[in-house]
Amino acid sequence: MEAVSYESRICRDQKKIEKFLSEERVGVLGMAGTDYPYAVPVNYIFYKNSIIFHGMGTGKKNDLIFQNPFVCFTVYKEIGTVTDSVPCHADTSYMSVMIYGKVREIKEPKEGAEVLQKLVEKFMPGFYKHALSENFIQKYRSDTDGKAVSIYQIEIAEMTAKENLVEKSQLFKG
Fold first, then answer.
1. Partners of 97 in beta bridges
2. Per-residue pLDDT, 46
3. Could you write out the DSSP letters of every residue in 10-59?
4. Helix (H) or strand (E) run with residue 4 in it
5. What residue ranges in the chain does DSSP mark as E strands?
6. Domain spans of the chain, in order of start
7. Short-list 151, 141, 165, 174, CA closest to 11
8. Left, alpha or beta for 61 (phi > 0: left; psi -120 to 50: alpha)?
9. CATH of domain 7-166
10. Is the dihedral of CA 163, 167, 172, 173 positive or negative?
11. Residues 32-51: tens digit of each pLDDT
12. Confidence (pTM)
């Protein structure tokens, strides 16, 4: 288990964590790189207690996932700077969630269409009049590399959350 050292900041409210993950739009995917760790921001959905994201069928992210599917995924939101009369006591108001897990590629067209539809609904609600079909998922090819979209699911092994939420009156108004 990855322990949070700042005990007073631990968030154990599962409903709050799930709401946060459902509402935020971008997370940072951390992977073991060949020479250095590699972290890349991705759009995602929190769905059925897992993280779903997608991307081109080629590239560094795909290569690293196939070499080592164990990842860390971080979602955070900075709310503002907390003021204090003592400069060293100034702080940041935030919420963050770190997820550790294993990535699997979603290859089944029905499942792929279902989760990509959820992604489309999150980022462009009501924009498209028809749901994505299995046929669309099977036939779509990227203009960039001519390959099918890759859809990934992070199966969560563990998750930690931290928060420092304060009253608006405590935030810097500069």
1. 75, 161
2. 98
3. B---HHHHHHHHHH--EEEEEE--SSS-EEEEEE-EEETTEEEEEE-SSS
4. none
5. 26-31, 38-43, 45-47, 50-55, 70-82, 91-105, 150-164
6. 7-166
7. 165
8. alpha
9. 2.30.110.10
10. positive
11. 998 999 999 999 999 999 99
12. 0.90
